[in-house]
Design a protein that fits this description.
The structure is a homodimer. The first copy, chain A, is α/β, with parallel strands linked by helices. Chain A has 2 domains: 14-256, Type I PLP-dependent aspartate aminotransferase-like (Major domain) (Aspartate Aminotransferase, domain 2), CATH 3.40.640; 257-359, Aspartate Aminotransferase, domain 1, CATH 3.90.1150.10. The first copy, chain A, is built from 10 helices and 14 strands. Chain A has helices at 14-22, 42-59, 73-85, 99-111, 209-214, 225-230, 240-256, 258-278, 305-317, 342-359; strands spanning 3-4, 65-70, 91-96, 113-119, 143-146, 148-149, 154-155, 168-171, 188-192, 203-208, 285-286, 297-301, 320-321, 332-335. In chain A, the strands form 4 sheets. A 7-stranded mixed beta sheet of chain A has the order 2-10-9-8-5-3-4, sandwiched between helices. A 3-stranded antiparallel beta sheet of chain A has the order 11-12-14. Chain A has a two-stranded parallel ribbon with strand order 1-13.
């Protein structure tokens, strides 16, 4: 039994893996694997439609939104968003609370006028900007935020401060579907699937209809959101297996009780690990300020790099994998996405307590 | 038992499906699915490296080439190639022999100066241009061809006519690894995996080192070939499962005897189906001129749309799927990629003979 704390690609629900395995050689009596099926088949079109419908149902969204299944990960979205929605002479605003927001902002600067509305870089990305410290410009083409920063372990609350009337765009790669939130306040949400949604290889985009129509029309066909919307994500061959897996995960979330159940489970898991940090008398030093703590990625340091190495190695021996911090910052990171079980979080918290007792 | 003639996503080797299924829940004793594994894990890095090495070995390529695993399909390559390699003031040349070449050419025209060197559109894409009918310009930034047109069923021979000194770029999505060829004559080859290589969701790019360095540097990071080359296709999260499957297919090709064995098998399969056309006294009318016939996609018409409908429906009842022609042209198309068995081709040829006898 392995406890999988990988930062993404990450743990998937065991029920979903079991089902994918059971039907891998013969999808629903077709005599073919899902891997061998045409994306124009009625079977795949049903999966594609179900994935959009299931996602919209979980988010409580209606006909004014579309769900698109794209490729290239969040990094491709960093470029496609300014390409499509940053008009010549216009500007966009970015709030940067960690490494991923930084990358999104850099790509936008390369492609047009992108302004840094707020950043917590000078505090080492430990917190969120105070809401009275910035004033969004209503004239911005859009305002971009990153709801959860996986590397620093900083997360915006589900209830956001007032962010003004410009179209709100969010990178939710690492906390999408981890809790209920008001999806209707966003013009565009994007998320690489490989955290809470499925395997790597598909990027889910939730986009408001009016924004689609505002996109530039002089771009390559494959780089326009309008192309994906008009063709139900079937303009060209989609990543069939990844979308199929996402749909299985969406059904699993629904079966578990939806986003409310996910939020309760995620809060319980994170509380145990944060308690192990807070009750360690400073042996573990959490990176994020308490008010900005992520429920998805818990980042902390030990008193020395040697102890961190020992921690990782003993954790590995105890069957806990994926706990090394991102190579750009080091330290420890426990990723507790939807599919990570309460048992895994319990095991980690207990291991942390014992390790602190032994070496603290 | 199903005979899978899907045009892509398409049949995969049964041995590969069986292996993927067997190890889906626990990859090599790690206690995790390949779907849950970090792309920075040593296991995935080994898969990524093996896939590059296996592909270069099959193609007989050395250190002057790189293999990249990208996303977005051939349609994304249609845009990325001119974006990277068509300099301001420069021009590229395109030879168009079917619908996919047409799309590649249209995208290039949108992005820079693309010239139509030769086209067989006015004959309905049935043939290849006579080699004395066009003269490639040595000053072109590159010359683009499509080695196999899946929709029309037209294929260039493995041994190409003299195409001049400009860097040769080829869309090989639908005949890559189906036969031995001189890979060293190409500056860039790209192929969506979902025909001969694996499932949908990864695009394989084989690129000569000197071309990588010639790419534009003012593009979004994720749109530069140099980014993928420098980071061994791990700049951002790759489509892990699709690359894993591609590597299994590469090993299968090697085990079968490499590209020579593929070519022999593919020639045998296609010969049977073309014989069923040629010996039908005109009941079946092949689309491609005999000299341009594709060994991958065999396209033909029946005397009436009603008979085509009946053909598809009776074929389906006999366990043969994926035979409808592309929705843009209609008719019948049998795709006989590497993983389609000799038994399936035999069954189809026999069915065609019987059908012609009954309705001819």
């Amino acid at each position: 039994m392995i406890h999988n704390f990988n930062p993404g690609p990450a743990a998937l629900p065991p029920e979903v893996i079991a089902r994918a395995q059971a039907e891998l050689a013969d999808y629903h009596g077709t005599g073919m694997s899902i891997l061998e099926m045409s994306h124009r088949s009625k079977e795949y079109e049903a999966i594609n439609a179900a994935a959009e419908a299931n996602l919209k149902a979980l988010l409580g969204l209606g006909d004014d939104y579309r769900v698109l299944f794209m490729q290239g990960g969040a990094s491709m979205q960093f470029a496609l968003i300014p390409l499509n929605f940053l008009p010549t002479g216009g500007f966009a605003e970015y709030i940067v609370t960690g490494s991923w927001g930084e990358k999104a902002f850099e790509e936008a600067q390369r492609l047009g006028q992108a302004r840094l509305l707020a950043s917590t870089a000078d505090q080492g990305y430990r917190s969120l900007p105070e809401s009275d410290s910035f004033t969004p410009d209503p004239q911005a083409a859009y305002l971009h935020i990153t709801t959860n920063e996986t590397i620093q372990g900083v997360q915006w609350p589900a209830e956001l401060p007032q962010l003004g009337p410009a179209p709100l765009v969010a990178d939710m790669s690492s906390d999408f579907l981890s809790r209920p939130f008001n999806a209707g306040q966003f013009a565009l949400i994007y998320a690489g699937a490989q955290k809470n949604l499925g395997p790597a290889g598909v990027t889910v985009v939730v986009i408001r209809q009016d924004l689609i129509e505002r996109g530039r029309k002089d771009l390559p066909v494959i780089m326009r959101y309008a192309t994906f919307a008009k063709n139900n994500s079937l303009y060209n061959t989609p990543p069939v297996f990844a979308v199929y897996m996402v749909n299985l995960v969406l059904e699993w979330i629904k079966d578990q009780g939806g986003l409310t159940a996910m939020a309760e489970r995620n809060a319980r898991k994170a509380a145990m690990v944060y308690a192990a940090i807070d009750e360690s008398n400073g042996f573990y030093a959490g990176h994020a300020a308490p008010a900005a703590r992520s429920l998805m990625n818990i980042t902390f340091r030990l008193p020395s790099p040697e102890l961190e190495k020992k921690f990782l190695s003993e954790a590995q021996s105890a069957g806990m994998v994926g706990l090394a911090g991102h190579r750009s910052v080091g330290g420890i990171r426990a990723s507790l996405y939807n599919a990570v079980s309460v048992e895994s979080a319990t095991a980690l918290a207990q291991f942390m307590q014992e390790f602190a007792q032994r070496y603290g």
